[in-house]
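INFO worker-7 received task bundle
INFO bundle size: 2
INFO processing item 0
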Amino acid sequence: MSSHTSSNDRRARIEQMRRAEQARERRNRFLTVGISAVVVAALVGFGGYVLNKESQEKEEKEAAAKAPVKGEQTWDAQELGRNHVQTPVSYEMRPPVGGDHNPVWMNCDGDVYTEEIPEVNAVHSLEHGAVWVTYTEAAGAGEVKKLAAKVEKTPFSLMSPYADQKGAIMLSAWGKQVTVDSADDPRVDQFFTKYLQGPQTPEPGAACTGGLSGK
């Protein structure tokens, strides 16, 4: 075989190898582009799902905030006394949902009290926008535990036993009150959503810490 033929064969093999390498590079580019497109589509789809979910949850909360709480009692918030007093107060409803009260509020930053607390301090907490969960011995231990878990993770709420009330479990806010059947009653979440720092609050945003701790 002549040196010329060997040189031609070598160039042919080199050209063949070059074309094969170019083909591999094209396949790799196509594969990279394809994977990137799939990833982008997945991210876009996931982002859309998250946004839709957040939008749906927001709409549900807004709807719950507008809907009346079944069985709730309402008092005119403007007619409830708001004077600071150092003397005992006789409230017309039990637990009270407003009226004259002690200058010191009950801590209500997710505070769970295992003993009864002074009404005059708890009412001051309601003035600050808190929801007060109360219960009697008729409430099961499991129900009390579930309610305590909810209160503990919810700023502007407090919970305590209250022997002298009609319902086993009651929720109170300034001018609002409802008796519920259990901790799983959907009105519990609805009441929190609607009235915790709700529009009925005389002093929204006022402190729920730095008050009376009950200890």
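INFO item 0 finished
INFO processing item 1
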Amino acid sequence: MGSAKKTESKSRKARIEEMRRAEQARERRSRILTITASVIVVAGLVAGGAFLINSQSDDKDSASGDSKSTSGKFVTGKDGVKTWSTKLTQNHVTKDVKYPMEPPVGGDHNQVWMNCNGDVYTKAVKNVNAVHSLEHGAVWVTYNSKASDADVKTLSEKVKKTPYTLMSPVEDQKDPIMLSAWGHQRTVTSASDPNVAKFFETYVQGKQTPEPGAACTNGLSQ
């Protein structure tokens, strides 16, 4: 009888100890979860504050008008390609940008790029979106009303067959047909000018590309 009671007592103590250990484990988990939640909340507040500050800054910038892009000038090489003399900025902005060249070859730009997977646009596109395409390694073919219909058609066909290119009219540009890449630009005499193929070969996803391999789809389209 006494032996049975001792056995029962030991068994009860063992169960109590097991319950205590389980409770202590739950308390530890609870403390860890509480600390983790607190850290997440604090991090969220900090991130939220930073986002609010940045948003206010962007709003202030947007309200202040156009932004000036990088200063500099073109330097023309022996091959006829003009290269921008200074490093071009790459900030994402929500406002328009006053570029020091037309068409622009780089500088601050909108966070959304123009689709440039052989896309041909029949209407003018926004510079701030096209510049983002150049940042991704695209070549931008532009023309004005002085370009012949035959040249426009031939260039359109070439662009449509070439990933990382886009084409659009730019009436204010200096010459009838121009080719632009990030930091580089040249004029060509016609669609049959051999410099068209040379420019494509050199600058489509060329060494000048700030973000090689970045998307030319899922952006903006007309």
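INFO item 1 finished
INFO post-check item 1: The chain is about 40% helix and 15% strand.
INFO post-check item 1: The CA atoms of residues 12 and 18 lie 10 Å apart.
INFO worker-7 idle
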